[in-house]
Amino acid sequence: MLKIVSPIMRIVEIPMLALQRKLGINRLAWAFLLPNLILFGLFAFLPVILNVFYAVTGGDNVLLADRPNVGVRNFASLLDCSNHFDPNSCREDKFWRAVWNTAWFVTLQVGFMVGFALLTALILNRDIRARGFFRSVFFFPVLLSPVVVALIWKWILQREGVLNAFLDWTGIGGINWLVDAQWAFTWSVFISVWAHMGFYTLILLAGLQAIPRDVYDAALMDRASAWRTFRKITLPLLAPTMLVVLVLALIKGVQTFDEIYAFTGGGPGTATTFIIQYIYERGFAGAPRLFGLAAAASLLVAGVLVVLTLLQLRVSKENADG
Amino acid sequence: MAKVISFLTATRGKGRLHWTDWVSYGYLCLGIFLMFGPVVWLVLSSFKTPNELDRFPPRFLPYAQETLEIEGYDSPLLAFVVTEGELAGQTVGQTRRAAGRAEVVVPANPSERIRLQADTLDPIEHIAFATENYTQLFERFNFLRFFWNSTFITVTATILMLLFNSMAAFALSKYEFRGRTTVLLMVIGTLMVPQTVVLVPLFLIVTELGMFNSLWGVIIPGAATPTGVFLLRQYMITIPDEILDAARMDKASEWKIFWRIILPLSAPAIAVLAILAIMWRWNDFLWPLIVLTRTENFTLQLALNSFQGELQTDWPSLLAMTVLTLLPIAAVFAFLQKYIATGIASTGGK
């Protein structure tokens, strides 16, 4: 390994040394930053600015010069509804279906996921044997790729799959899970919780283990009941971690796409189409490619995410300070 | 045995298990079943023959029916045991089957064909792991191509990311220069711009740079991550400045200090980031889906996703491919799970 790396590094040293002589040591920092800054600039900052231009232009041309200015018309058509709670009354009904699906999905997914993650973390924090093993059992699915997660569960849930076989055996009878809109949605929430729960369990467990042991010893001396100890010590001291976990889960939840797209393709109908899939379909999958609508929708999502991220930074900062 | 029992039942300080301990262990065992069960089922299923996969209700282990080599027949015949009638208990080879009736021969007397009701025949089976699902991946699909694409993207992007991010982290942790705070704020700023919300302009930029439908279109945009810069910077800050000063006394150039001193000393943090990077790139889906539209450029994830649409019923290939796709990550997990856990907990997993 070093044999390959060393010569390369030595060659890079020549221009870097020349730069160092010219700039001095401290200004050389910019040379070290340069590759990263170019990438950040090209693939993070420039897109943010360009996104605004796309959002106010129309047509299906990808080159900005060929796109006619349409002002706020993209936003207008996205937001044009006689009743925002009823997608059927909207011009872009698919957008609003995606918005409400996402809202429901995020609420349920984050609720169940954080709930189960907390329960799992509390149990893992007890005096149990083989804690490391059990921790990795719950963490394991986090590493699986979204497509693999989707296929694993599709195989189990298919018409002649193992779950239906079990239900047949118990006498309940099989169900065509992914053809029924409500079941498809329910299972989408389930596999998403299944795939990501371990990550939040890990963070919450770290939070629980950071609570000083002597606080509990003091509670034991005072003969406080387990429930009281939990409510008066564990919960308040875990609250900052919980907040971080909640906001992180929300940020990720809003961006849900991969595993559900591979799992249901957004269907049946639009039952599991979420906002990122809407953007993907408008901009890239369908014809004509409505980049303007996709960019406008992206900006709306970005607004939500920026608020959530600022909240997260603030919460983590408070945690670090407090 | 007694040791096992005492191991399983012992809790600290107390002699007996409290009922809450039972509930806890019950929950954890349910966890094993729910978390590992689906993956075990996938792996077992991938070793089943297509016939066995079509079977409903399915069986837990993969079985294969035994065959009989009988004189006068070119190919081996499927072996059955007769359950009723004159031949009850005998082993026979089936020559034909249609409309609920089967034509069989007894090995001892291959010339005489006997007709029986098909439901009086019980197949003779043994547990067998069929590898055909795997071998046909290489014959029927361009599997190696997808595997290579995924590997190339993962390895190249990880190396570039480690190099660029550690250079930036070095600059931000060890130099006092004007504009450092601005750069740090910029890095935080990029945290707020996930790829999912800049897909359209990103697509334009990548196309303009000539990287549409090229593996580089996936590699380059992912090569700089704010998470990586932060993770490495936090670690490099803890390296004492005196080491750098000593090296400068010895007239080492800054670049040499970077790669001969800082990089080796940051090895633990770099290892964590490397694992994360491998995971991100290997599992990446949405961006490759947009950039790579030609089949020969597909990564494993894209290939898996497109095949499940095209070959709705070809579960044998799909299952084998899924197993092969999760294998590298499972291997990484098995060997490095301690690092992964700490790495993900410390970065927020982005």
Could you walk me through the main structural features you see in this protein, from its secondary elements to its overall organization?
The complex is a heterodimer of chains A (322) and B (350). Chain A is an all-alpha fold and 322 residues long. Chain A folds into two domains: 2-55, no CATH class; 92-321, MetI-like (MetI-like fold, Orthogonal Bundle). Chain A contains 13 helices and no strands. Chain A has helices at 2-23, 29-55, 73-79, 93-124, 131-139, 146-157, 162-170, 181-209, 213-221, 226-254, 258-264, 275-285, 291-321. In chain A, 42% of the residues are buried. Chain B folds into three domains: 19-62, no CATH class; 63-127; 134-347, MetI-like fold (Orthogonal Bundle). Chain B is 59% helix and 11% strand. Chain B is built from 15 helices and eight strands. In chain B, the strands form two sheets. In chain B, strands 2, 3, 4, 5, 6 and 7 form a six-stranded antiparallel sheet that branches. A two-stranded antiparallel sheet of chain B has the order 1-8. In chain B, helix 5 (143-174) packs antiparallel against helix 12, helix 6 (180-191) packs across helix 9 and helix 12 (267-283) packs antiparallel against helix 15. Classes of the chains: A mainly alpha (322), B alpha+beta (350). Chains A and B meet through helix 1, helix 2, helix 4, helix 5 and helix 6 of A and helix 2, helix 5, helix 6, helix 7 and helix 11 of B.
